[in-house]
Amino acid sequence: MALFPEIVVVLSAPAGVAGFNALFVLGIALPIIQSLIRHVEAGGFGEEAKAYYATAIQQGDEMLKTASEVVQQWWYDLFSEDKELAPSSV
Which pTM was predicted? Predict the structure, then answer.
């Protein structure tokens, strides 16, 4: 590497470009998505789209709640089996 630093730069360039492109795309896409969501919430695409969006958010919240409860149960089962990690009764 010390003898041929140009080779290191050339070989590491694709990783740098890929990382920059990913951040660049996110920087462009996120504001557009946020704008579309605000527009839907305000009723700009009609009441039907607003109702579909509200239903999707409600379903997503229910899925997250269910998944969270499952993971909590997994953790409880995992740590209740290990006496050193189980909470001690006071």
Answer: 0.54
